[in-house]
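Summary for the steering committee. One of the milestones for this cycle was to obtain a three-dimensional model of the protein with pantoate bound, which we needed before selecting residues for the alanine scan. The sequence and ligand used are listed below.
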Amino acid sequence: MGGARAADSCLPPTPIPRYARDDMLRLARTIEETRAAIRGPRAAGRTVGLVPTMGFLHEGHLSLIRVAREHGADFVAVSIFVNPLQFAPHEDFQRYPRDEEHDRKLLEREGVDLLFLPSIDVMYPPNATTRVTVTGVAEALEGERRPGHFTGVATVVSKLFNIVQPELAVFGRKDAQQCAVIERMVRDLDIPIRLVFGETIREHDGLAMSSRNSYLMREQRALAPVLHRALRAGEDAIKHGIDRVESIEKLMHKMVAETAGVEVDYLVVVDPLTFRTPADFHRDLLVAGAVHIGKTRLIDNIRVAKNAIPHAHV
Ligand code: PAF
């Protein structure tokens, strides 16, 4: 359209970003609608990128959409589905924040092409009993504390991959173990999708953006950045040559223990491939943590590259 108007006025056509070729956000609520919406763009040679989310979108999600484009997606689909399968009965499925209208506005503004917004029945018809379980990496840390969580994630993500069949899919590194689990699943099941992981987007005080931050009351919100500060202290210790896991974990615990109202679930140094205690410090490491503030559970992590670790054999 922009090109035609420019031609009428004898001006050179205004280049239109590929992703904005039609600037309408299409909404699909069923699998058939989703596949139909993607058929045309795929036949036209466009590269489909998928950003799976549970909605209540924030800057972190929007950054993943941009990452999809930077990695070559010129048709971006976003899914919003609060997946009951990844919540234990005592967890926050019911109260998980939802705001469909606001999410749609944000996605429109971001130039997203397709929003897949299925109901629970669409994703899990009553007779569906198949689950995807990743072993190994999914069993440590979050897997230990949230039994069944990663089976819920792997099941819904593999369904989304089959429904959309994107060339690439983007996930946020804030959920580092989720990224590792999905990477394992894609390798083990030979799923022909390129995975891209986007960096964690933070508030001005370091708190990792998360839809769950909206649970925090003002006083709780003020306490929350201690998680990131503790992880930063762990990262600094590693970079300054401390190579005893217990010392680093103790240091991080001490920082959080000083903040009344914040309870540590875990603060650990792990191998980002296994999410278990690293065999040594001659490898990339991850400092990861989970804390409870009132009823809200927050997680975060920082990756420490091998080449930033003194004496690591590079
Ligand atoms: O990270 C999330 O928001 C969810 O775990 C995901 C990947 C959308 C699966 O429900």
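Key point for the committee: The mean pLDDT is 94.
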